[in-house]
Amino acid sequence: MSTASPVKTTAVAAQGVWKAYGQGEAQVVALRDVSVEFASGAFTAIMGPSGSGKSTLMHCLAGLDTTDRGTVGIGDTTITGLGDKALTKLRRDKIGFIFQQFNLLPTLTAEENITLPLAIAGAKADPDWIKRIIHTLDLTDRLSHKPTELSGGQQQRVACARALASRPEVVFADEPTGNLDTRSGAEVLNFLRTSVDDFGQTIVMVTHDPNAAAYADRVVFLADGQIVEDMADPTADKVIDKMKHFEELVAAAQGENA
């Protein structure tokens, strides 16, 4: 007897989001009426050319930047309009971050960097969970090393472990393989894929790399601050082909909104 797949809930949602920078003739509209949802337990990539708004969208979704109009929600919490103290608590409790720059503290060991956010929050680490992440990332024999004693790939794996240490509702990854060689990048992407498949983690990743996007379940394409395509089950070839026709996608999106 077949068993129905569990219905995925929404981990992150944006509704009618606008964001602009500057004033008057110098104003740049980074996001134009963007509405999108990201399912829990799924790996979604956000792609687009430089200046498309992909990083701005991620920053608004993660509460790192404010919206001019529209709303953003994480789980059951609407983060739009929250004060600084409430936003800080939400980011600490519900969100993990992985950046292109590893952002590790040089005076701390790998293990101390991994557990630092929990220590700052005064939260007790789950030793079994931390051990599982460390084992999955093959960092067991690197825990006493400081960042300068680690390769770039190892540093980013430490950053990945830090992002998952608190079991966040969603992990936002901004070009996580941008500073890595091909092999190290593949190790990080394989871990992100594993964290979704085995741990039920939700990942939202900004990338410009079609090969990185191919690890995701879905790719959302942005251009000129608008979503112009939403692709399920991406492959590198499908993503490359889509990006070759970006001008057509933008023209179609503009025509629909005219």
TrEMBL record:
Keywords: ATP-binding, Nucleotide-binding, Transport. InterPro entries: AAA+_ATPase, ABC_transporter-like_ATP-bd, ABC_transpr_LolD-like, MacB-like_ATP-bd, P-loop_NTPase. Gene3D superfamilies: P-loop containing nucleotide triphosphate hydrolases. This is Putative ABC transport system ATP-binding protein. PROSITE patterns: ABC_TRANSPORTER_2. GO terms for molecular function: ATP binding; ATP hydrolysis activity; transmembrane transporter activity. Pfam families: ABC_tran. Residues 12-249 form the ABC transporter domain. It comes from the Bacteria. The keyword Ligase does not apply. SMART domains: AAA (SM00382). GO terms for cellular component: membrane protein complex; plasma membrane.
